[in-house]
Design brief:
alpha/beta; Rossmann fold; six-stranded parallel β-sheet
Length: 358
């Protein structure tokens, strides 16, 4: 069996998801390829997976004719979904949604694309996230729906020991854009630095994906809060090294902050948990699949900066609670989000579609 996964560019959570699921499915004798229509920094994370970067219709047509895929998964890009049918692809065509930003944005996008998706796709796929489940059922009725948890590489990505830093690190991963809510991170971080003056703020991301106006606002707030000397920007860290950085943050006595307005899954949070780095996050829908307050991490109501600072401080200062959360979180991710479980669910979906299509 041969499957093609597509997305706009190899970056962020989608690059991670595609790489992890290809590795898992390859181990079950499913050959996986990747197609991105635009290049990106995350491409250098990809190893041993046939990958094509092109938006050229003739090149995509040649790829389909040569590889004769049993199934194609198109994530988010409805134009590419329709192109697959236009180019004559007759196999199983699955439209995937991993997250569409805020609820208003998600509603608008799905309203706009629903007729085209229903006309071209055999099925839709999305993570077990309640807001996505509601939206997909509402906007895309009369088509096969498949929903199961995204995978993590629980075998090769995890905690690594390094000599502990002598100061706490408060980390953040994401693009400088509205849904990732960098503003709250800076506000919380500034307050935490007043409580822990030796600490530092570490930001991880891909600067090429940030919006110029948002970057300008970001820098203005950094200067207004007078925290530039405490801010360390890590650009385009190879994914395999992120386990090291997350482990270092955890062992520093600090934590990872996730301030997103809404997450479909939240790879940064789940991977931090796997690396024994405690997490404080907004009470965002997708996060609730794996984070239980005061059991596997800490939640705070979005925009409540005071509450967030208090919860973060307790993660730093209350060592029995911190150690319990770290142990519970690592165990929870390893137990419930393995790539083997994802591969079984994915193959079950393909087999179900094969039976349905005849």
């Amino acid at each position: 069996m041969k499957v093609l996964f597509t997305f706009f560019n190899p970056s962020g959570g989608m690059e991670t998801l595609n790489r992890i699921r290809c590795k898992a499915l390859n181990q079950t004798k499913v050959e996986c390829h990747l197609l991105y229509t635009v290049d990106g920094e995350g491409r250098r994370n990809i190893k041993d997976i046939p990958t094509v970067v092109t938006s050229d219709e003739a090149a995509i047509k040649r790829l389909l004719d040569r590889e004769r895929y049993d199934a194609i998964v198109v994530c988010t890009d409805v134009k590419l979904l329709m192109l697959m049918r236009k180019l004559g692809y007759k196999g199983r065509l699955i439209f995937e949604i991993q997250g569409l930003g805020t609820m208003s944005t998600a509603n608008a996008v799905l309203k706009d694309i629903s007729a085209r998706v229903l006309g071209a796709a055999d099925a839709v796929l999305y993570p077990l996230t309640s807001h996505l489940q509601r939206l997909m059922v509402e906007h895309l009725p009369g088509i096969f729906h498949y929903s199961f948890d995204d995978p993590l590489d629980t075998k090769d990505f995890g905690y690594a020991y390094y000599p502990p830093k002598p100061y706490p690190i408060f980390g953040w991963i994401g693009r400088i854009e509205e849904n990732k809510n960098w503003r709250d991170y800076l506000l919380i971080g500034a307050n935490l630095l007043s409580l822990h003056p030796t600490g530092y703020l570490w930001i991880f991301g891909d600067p090429s994906l940030s919006e110029p106006k948002e970057n300008e606002r970001f820098n203005q707030l950094v200067d207004a809060l007078q925290i530039r000397s405490k801010l360390v920007m890590h650009a385009n860290i190879p994914h395999e090294q992120m386990a090291d950085y997350l482990s270092i943050i955890g062992d520093s006595g600090g934590l990872l902050l996730s301030t997103s307005i809404l997450e479909g899954f939240g790879y940064a949070v789940a991977e931090a948990m796997l690396c024994r780095c405690p997490v404080l996050t907004t009470d965002s829908d997708g996060i609730r699949r794996f984070l239980v307050h005061d059991h596997t991490g800490k939640l705070y109501p979005r925009t409540d900066i005071g509450k967030a600072v208090g919860e973060a401080h307790s993660l730093v200062a209350n060592l029995p609670l911190r150690n319990r959360i770290i142990a519970n979180a690592e165990k929870h991710i390893k137990t419930h989000f393995s790539s083997d479980k994802y591969a079984a669910n994915f193959i079950g979906m393909l087999n179900g579609l094969k039976t349905a299509k005849g």
